[in-house]
Amino acid sequence: MTEQTIPAGDGLRADEVSAYAALEDRVRAGATMPLTMAAPGRGKPPRHWLDLTGEQRRAAVTELGLPGFRADQISRHVFEHLDLDPSGWTDLPAADRGRVAEAFLPSLLTSVRPLSCDGGTTLKTLWRLHDGSLIESVLMRYGVPGIRASGSGRNRATLCISSQAGCGMACPFCATGQGGLQRNLSAAEILAQVVAGARSLRDGEIPGAPGRVNNIVFMGMGEPLANFKAVTATIDTLTAPAPHGLGISARGITVSTVGLVPRINALADAGVPVTLAVSLHAPDDELRDELCPINTRWNVADVVDAAHRYFRLTKRRVSIEYALIRDVNDQVARAELLAEVLRRDGGHGWVHVNLIPLNPTPGSKWTASRRRDEAAFVAALERRGVAVTVRDTRGREIDGACGQLAASVAGE
Ligand code: SAH
User: Fold this and answer.
1) What is the predicted pLDDT for the residue at 32?
2) Distance CA 162, CA 347 (A)
């Protein structure tokens, strides 16, 4: 990766910029990948309808010389019909369609490689952005009658989206982290992944009858809270009622972070009750420093405090992500320490632990835990009253998550 200086701006305060620069220096001295807090800022995508707020949309159509009511009309096509191509919008004069397309709906995502598994109920798409950067999104449908791999229970769909091209957080077990950060995505580039996923479901391209996206998780490529402005703008548009947004409930949205404490606090203060997931992966600073280099800046206690504050302010139960790595972080003693570290208000009612069997990256020295160690880890948490689940491992054969598909294509 090339050396990067941190530009001011992008919502970072001057003190944050210098703190991050110092942090990068420290980590550079010891880590395989430097931490990068701010994107280099290259390849800014063209402005898109999905980037704008309701007010900006009205101003933009007027600027183009169109009557103001066209704004609602365009939004209905985009958010209700999930249609980003004005050439077929018959309620818009033919002469205006090309101008609207050019001004507001430039093509942002090109599907490079769609891959599916689990009987077609897991669909992963690798997208190329206008500057050649690669990102991915994964649609997972659950509870489809007749398809065992989709699991049981209610028929619902979760879409996992990327917030950055690459990632600057340098976690050594994560393929994206090892590839470094290319750039932040714009709100439109994030939202376009949702529009595409919602369209696939609506059009019946996924087995199980036409459906809707119920859950959105920021667990694709990138550290969402390092791209705070675009991610919060995305959440605003996801939750805005039609015709000005996708009308998705904030409860169905999960923002997953490696633990950027000031940004967790800012997200809590923003007052949009999305679910927060914190990638902890170790209950002790010594091991977490290695697994999540950002821990050298905000340690386990800082992160758990911020997570608990998030719970107090939003009343949303926080999810703690913990990738189980064989003989690294999967000992019963660590489960016990995890339970202790998470105890707040006399118990664990504010939190839920989500164990993720490690998906080893190519060439990794680490692998997933043995079944019996995983079971012992779960039992140790349950004995202490910690709510815990083990994440299913859908999509493994298509490099289901964690940046592996983009990494393999970039290397071709
Ligand atoms: N930057 C965000 C989103 C990362 S992806 C974050 O750190 O939370 C979502 C989850 O997948 C994170 O918990 C991440 O640590 C985890 N993850 C990354 N690589 C993994 C791998 N190879 N196996 C299992 N989980 C992994």
Assistant:
1) 57
2) 34
